[in-house]
Structures are given as structure tokens and as C-alpha cells.
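Researcher: Go.
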Amino acid sequence: MSKELHDTVHNLGELKKSGWESVSVKEEIRRNLIQKIRSGETLFPGIKGYDKSVIPQLQHALLAKHDIILLGLRGQAKTKILRQLVSFLDEYMPIVEGSEINDDPLNPVSKQARELIKEKGDETPVSWVHRSQRYGEKLATPDTAVADLIGDIDPIKAAAEKLTLADENVINFGLVPRTNRGIFAINELPDLQPRIQVALLNIMQERDIQIRGFNVRIPLDVAMVFSANPEDYTNRGNIITPLKDRIDSQILTHYPRKIEVGMEITEQEAWIDRDSEVEVRVPKLIKELLEQVAFEARESEYIDQKSGVSTRMTITAMEQLISAAERRALMNGETETTTRITDVFHMVPALTGKLELVYEGEQEGVLNVAKHIIGKAVKKTFSRHFPDPEKQKKKEKDSIYKPVLDWFTNGNELELTDYMSRDEYERVLDSVDGLSKVVQDQVEADNNDVKYVLMDFVIEALHQNSMLGKEDLDDARSYSDMLGSMLSSMDDLDDFEDFDQ
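Model: Structure:
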């Protein structure tokens, strides 16, 4: 209905005749939410993994007309959810034309709007505001002032219009009143200084604002929503108790609980489809491996779990992975390529900046921790698709991995470089006895390229299971027999001791 009125109603008299009625913003949200639930519409498009946890709780809070706070670690889509709340507002809303605080033409609250209606009556012009303009947001920072959120006296305006500082028209409204009859969000609430949080108390309970020395209370109709990170409660600030008490619903967010959900989020958010000369394909197993890295990081004893491991890590890791494959293809003059295990290790820069280490992790070094986590992810992913190498080891001659391991025992080495062309990559992997058969017997490859990626994956997994030695060079990986690798290390140590003497 608001869309039809938007095209036909232009003044207060026409608005009255149209039958349009004022409702509070929370009642408006409730009414539209009920319609969406009945119609089976997707309430929060693009938000994955919350269907049975966060989203039902959000619905309950909105139906109860509550102010809410989303509490969760970084990278859990808190801001994205808050910004989608605007979809529960009417498409258009009428205001007194020119009003700074979206005055309701039927119930004006600012002095400016009241004076205009008194002067023009039913001829008072009405304009329509789209729902997208009814959402305000402020990132809480230590320098945020009461004037930013609530407002202050504007002496320049008073001088220009020859008004006294006691005149209500000299008020310069802050962000919250300018979002009157809408939704206002404050992100990272604990970062807001306690004295500034106090300024929100009246809005949350009495639903009005007071500015400086004015003996007036201006009623506001605002749905207040917040986000916060539990870590912030102790590290950077706190939510004062009276404000926490006034927030009706506290909803806990979380990281993806299933690998599949994490994969969907990463694929949705990462820059995968590039307008490039090279087509880069990412096999499902590599996507699964990448997501397993995040799951391992969220359980690692080297990482501060109070800080969390953001989903942004897997998103940027996927982009690094694709870029590594893209660069290799460009160097080899290829127009298409498939991501490899080598490319997985090139996503380390995406991990190192997003992992907050505990003391033990600092001792190991962030680079080693990142590689350790990738290694554990390789091992865990491998166990879901291939027989356990430890159990196979007990079978001795019947082990499916025996031909591969025997090839290395016979003194052979496998070197895979970062820039290896497709033909060279396939030729080198084909040279390992029994490797192709392991893949063919256990996993159904989508195409030939994926088959070789899986062969590469088997080699890396055997290393992670301590069955093959591995030497990491700047731009290559070299695999050899485990025992031979250990003896070589001992020889190197002996050479060093001889040199020292």
C-alpha cells in the first residue's frame, strides 16, 4: 500500500483521506515479519548456518518488539544480519517534507514540523522515505561523543538565523534522532565509553532524548540494535549494567558447525568467478580441505579461542588459493588450470594475519602454526575419503599404500614445484608406482585434472601421517622415504659438527 500512496499522496490532507495510519516502527517490523513467515519467504538471504539457532531467536525478539544485541566472535555475520533488518520495514514511509528527524505528518515531534503544520494545515507537503534510508549505523569508537549520537546546540545556526540559544530550533540532531521511525545499530558496543552509553539509557527506556540544557523531552520511535564481541568485555571495554538491562534480547551467534555450511559461506563470499584470461577450477576436496583448516584452527591449542577464527580467513584463503593457481597458469601460458596442494600452502598469508596466538603459539611462530594447522586439516580430510594409513600399515603386504611407499623406499624422490606446467605435473605424479591406482580405487574423480590433484593429495597426506619425509623449499616440495630423510638429517648434523670442530 505504501508504494501506491507514494505515487499519489503529496500533502497532509491527501494523507488523511488515504486512510494511512501511524504505527510504531517495532509494530511495523512485527507486522511485516508475520507476513513473511506466513508466505514462507526467506527472511535473511545469504545468512547460512543459523536456520535452527540464531534466526529463530531473532524472529522471537522481533515479534516481541524487542531491542536486541548480537553477541559473538569476529566474522560471524553480525553486521550483515543487522543491516538486513531494514527489509522488515514498509517500502515507503511518509514524513513532513524537510524534517530532519523524519516527523510523522500525523504526529509531529520537532518544533520545526509542528510550526509548519500549524502554518499550512492540510497543505503541508509530505515526502516519502524509502526503507533503505531508515537505517542508521555507528561503529562505536573511543572518540564517539554524545553530540554524535544524540545531538547538541549549534551556535552558528543560532547566529545565522538570529535565534537565542534557548530556542529549540538551534538544536543540531545527532545520528539517533535522525533515524527516528527507523532502525539504529551500534556495532562493537563495548568500545563506547561508559559516559556515552549513559546517554542511551533514556532512548532505551523512556523513548525520548534530552539535549544540553533544554527543558524539553523529544519523543523518539527507534528500534535499537547492537553487536558486540565477548572478548571486548574484558580487553577494550564493557557494557554498563543499566544499558545491558535495557537491551531486551541477547542473541548468541556462532561459527559454522558443519564443514558443508562453511563451504557454502566461503563460496558465496569469496571472489571466485574472475574476469580473467585463466579459468581456475577448485575441486570439491580442496574446498573441503580449506574449510577444515578453519575448523582445526578453532580447536588449536596454539590459538587464542577467545579471539576466535573469523570466517573471513577462509574467504581470503580461497582467494589466495585461486590467485596462486592463476599465476602458475599465466607463467605457463595456460588458459585453464586446477588448484593443487601447492596452492593450498600459498594461502598461509591469509591465515597469519587472522590468527591470534597464545604464548605457546608465539613460541612456535605464526608461520609454523599456520603450516601445522594446514597439515592437520590434510590429515583429517584425508581420513574421510581414504583408508587410514595407520590401519593399512598393519596389513603389510595388503596395504593399498605399499606400492607407493616401496617406490620411495627404493631411493626415489618426488619433487613438485609451484610453477610446474600441467603436462609436467602429470608426468611426475605418474612416475610414482601405484599412486594412480590408490586414487582410482578409493575416490571417483570428476575429471583427469582432479585425479592428479587427488594423487598429489595422497602424497601430502602420507607425509602428514609420518610415512614420507618432506623438504619444503622456497618454490617446491620434495618427498622422500621417511627413514632416508631422517638419516639424511643426521648426516647433515654430523657435517655441521665436523665443521664446528
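Model: The chain has a mean pLDDT of 90.
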